[in-house]
């Protein structure tokens, strides 16, 4: 009995130390994740400028204003376009490169992987500032090369035109996040049994047939997870847009995060509207959740087919 009691006490002390070690993480989660979510919901019901304690209760007026604001829906459409580019251009392109770089007979494949992944670990603000300098219509290196090769007769204002600004930022965003999609696919390719590929090769199957009938079906459940991760990441694009255009020109590159940032912190506003910005953030979060849940049936279908 005494031995059992000592064992129980030892286990309790062990569990207690586990909770003690988890405490800093729980505090950080509560302070930097849970509390901002709760506070955003609470502040969204006030007309508040961020100074002092909010007192002017407006109910759902902020939500109605956001939902009826054309600028919000324009920004949401731009955010959605970032996701479409990521899903329909970045995702299949990364798969093609992953299949190529997964070939053990390719010399220097690790160097190619590194080169493609370097943009991911590069600070986004630095990337934005560098590309702003490169794309400058007066002294930018890109326009100088275009002039030198005779491809253009006049400088192209990539970031100053409402026609070219959004595609330019989207292209740079694709380049910046391409490496992480590549890593996802490379990890998924490791789940494909080599025996299946070798058997198909012995039967005379071509490379495209192996990819279509073996690799893609085996990776399908993982591919849906990759799609969800990429969708959520691209829908919340903020730092690159803020560093390069801040939503301009004439809000042609405005996305929902820059829209929220402008109303909460930008000096463009006569006074900050934290309550309105919180309401926009809440609505954006709910819309993101709905769009993500709409993809859940595809995941269930793949699981049912795999079973």
TrEMBL record:
Residues 76-295 form the ABC transmembrane type-1 domain. Coiled coil: none annotated. It is found in: Cell membrane. Keywords: Cell membrane, Membrane, Transmembrane, Transmembrane helix, Transport. The keyword Nucleotide-binding does not apply. SUPFAM superfamilies: MetI-like. Pfam families: BPD_transp_1. It is a multi-pass membrane protein. The chain crosses the membrane at residues 16-38, 80-102, 114-135, 174-192, 213-231, 274-294. Its main location: membrane. The keyword Magnesium does not apply. Belongs to the binding-protein-dependent transport system permease family. This is Sugar ABC transporter permease. It comes from Occultella gossypii.
